[in-house]
Amino acid sequence: MTTQRQARDGVDVPELAVRDVTVRFAGIKALDRVSFTVAPGAIHAIIGPNGAGKSTCFNVLSGVYRATEGSVQFGDQELTGLRPHQIAGLGVARAFQNIALSAVQSVEENLMLGRHHLTKTGFLAGGLQLPQARREDRRHRARAREIAEFLDLTDKLDIPVGVLSYGDQKRVEVARALCTEPRLLLLDEPVAGMNADETRRMAVLIIEIRAALGITVVLVEHDMGLVMGIADRVTVLDFGRLIADGTPAQVQADAEVIRAYLGEAAEVPTEPGATPSGPAPAPAPSRAASPGATPLPALPPAASHPEKPS
Ligand SMILES: Nc1ncnc2c1ncn2[C@@H]1O[C@H](COP(=O)(O)OP(=O)(O)OP(=O)(O)O)[C@@H](O)[C@H]1O
Ligand SMILES: [Mg+2]
């Protein structure tokens, strides 16, 4: 039996347990017996130098890669061996590092693509615009707009994604993932390429998503200020191996983590109370919404959506 948490809309948010996962590509072990657990409702970061295996880990969690060995359990459900759409159907959504949106379609249509698997109306009824299909479409559009408002995208709903700024496109990517009504949200480098303001805004947003929906957020990120500022727990990979797993303070003070980031020549402080020269160069965003940030509108859980994955 695994730990569960009740999300705001009464949907169970289970624990994610990665056990002894190994992924081999010709000649290399991209992941080598990696084990960690993600508590329900946590903001959990996976960090590590380039090539450490972070994206491979996300690819295993979302079913893009199949683990050579080991298991991934989401509550009582074994994910290894499932196809990406089956994993998505269990409430696991991924926002991609390289934006995976349709550039020529509007923000609203991109968000509606996120709701596609929740649509019950068949192709024929939809095509014929039968009343039942129109009602369902209205309901999904209303929810997509609610999510857009939460991400401050309301005034961009009719704009083709391709003409938006990079920061806006990244928010649309997160909004599309939220439109699937996930219980576990995987964010692959959500602030890569963003400026400081956009990064702060995204940090506040991630905190607000968890607060509003009660879902689990796992993020892969190189921005240590963001990670150390918002993560409850951090898993550190290096050359496919897990080298540390703990609170932000614990991993920042971990000698092996410091070595992995700074190289063998790194001076590891041994004096009690000494400040490690760990990977925390950027200013950390506040755990609470930062005072200057625009407050986000409330995002109600999708209580009125009986088609959510159960
Ligand atoms: N499809 C693949 N075929 C062969 N090797 C791969 C494949 N995907 C990843 N690798 C290798 O696995 C290792 C881990 O790669 P991965 O992309 O998971 O690293 P990462 O931690 O995401 O790095 P970065 O921070 O640069 O994105 C690397 O050596 C990479 O070259
Ligand atoms: Mg990567």
Write a structural description:
- There is one protein chain.
- This protein has 310 residues and is an alpha/beta fold.
- It contains 10 helices and 12 strands.
- The protein has helices at 54-61, 84-89, 107-114, 123-127, 131-150, 166-178, 196-213, 224-230, 248-252, 255-262, and strands at 4-6, 12-14, 16-25, 28-38, 43-47, 69-74, 77-78, 92-95, 184-188, 216-220, 233-238, 241-246.
- The strands form 3 sheets. A 6-stranded mixed sheet has the order 8-9-10-5-11-12, with helices on both faces. A 4-stranded antiparallel sheet has the order 4-3-6-7, covered by helices on one side. Strands 1-2 form a two-stranded antiparallel ribbon.
- β1 and β2 (12-14) form a beta hairpin.
- α3 (107-114) runs parallel beside α6 (166-178).
- The longest helix is centred in the middle third of the chain and has 20 residues, at 131-150.
- The model is unreliable at 268-296 and 303-310 (pLDDT under 50).
- The structure holds adenosine-5'-triphosphate (ATP) and magnesium ion.
Q: Mind telling me the C-alpha Rg?
A: 20 Å
The percent of residues in helical segments reads 25-40%
Q: Name every ligand kind in the structure.
A: adenosine-5'-triphosphate, magnesium ion
Helix/strand order, N-terminal first: EEEEEHEEHEHHHHEHEHEEHH
Shape: globular
Compute the number of helices. Answer: 10
Uncertain segments: 268-296, 303-310
Structural class: alpha/beta
% residues in beta strands:
15-25%
How is the largest sheet built, in terms of strand order?
8-9-10-5-11-12
